[in-house]
Design goal:
With 151 residues, the chain is an alpha/beta fold. It contains 5 helices and 5 strands. The protein is 39% helix and 15% strand. 29% of the residues are buried.
Length: 151
């Protein structure tokens, strides 16, 4: 079996503008061709995923990078929404957070997170994590068929 690279549409759910910048910059520095949509709170994430309001006609993400500590609706609630939705539950969700708390990890996996990554504190470490995410999810992992719900 030969791995084949595929273009992925990432959704980054991150309220910290510095962290969001690091993710975007890390993707650019690694010359990743994936698209990256960014929302800054949990309510926006849910609207984006439903394709409602300003997000009508948005591209369905192939992968969600989700922070846990978010305003309005926290990351655990966003994760539960995704994994309990018949139209969204096949989208892989990677928790990308500063929290190394056992309770957060346990709760994330109870809600069927696909991966849990504690954000590295240095720029090079952050870039390496993003590059590895792209390699795994874009090349190694085959992933579910991507399809918009009918209607």
């Amino acid at each position: 079996m030969t791995a084949k690279s595929r273009l992925l549409n990432f959704l980054l759910v991150e309220d910290d503008t510095d962290h969001a910048y690091l993710v975007r910059r890390s993707m650019e520095r690694a010359r990743l061709t994936n698209s990256l949509a960014h929302v800054s709170d949990g309510m926006e994430a849910i609207l984006y995923l439903k394709g409602e309001g300003q997000y009508r006609g948005r591209v369905r993400p192939d992968l969600i990078l989700l922070d846990l500590k978010l305003p309005k609706v926290d990351g655990h609630e966003v994760l539960a929404h995704v994994k309990n939705s018949p139209d969204l539950k096949t989208i892989p969700v990677v928790i990308l957070t500063t929290s190394d708390a056992e309770t957060d990890r346990a709760k994330a996996y109870e809600h069927h997170a696909n991966s849990y990554i504690v954000k590295p504190l240095d720029g090079e470490g952050f870039r390496a994590v993003i590059e590895h995410l792209n390699l795994y999810w874009g090349v190694v992992d085959v992933g579910p068929p991507s399809a918009e719900p009918a209607g």
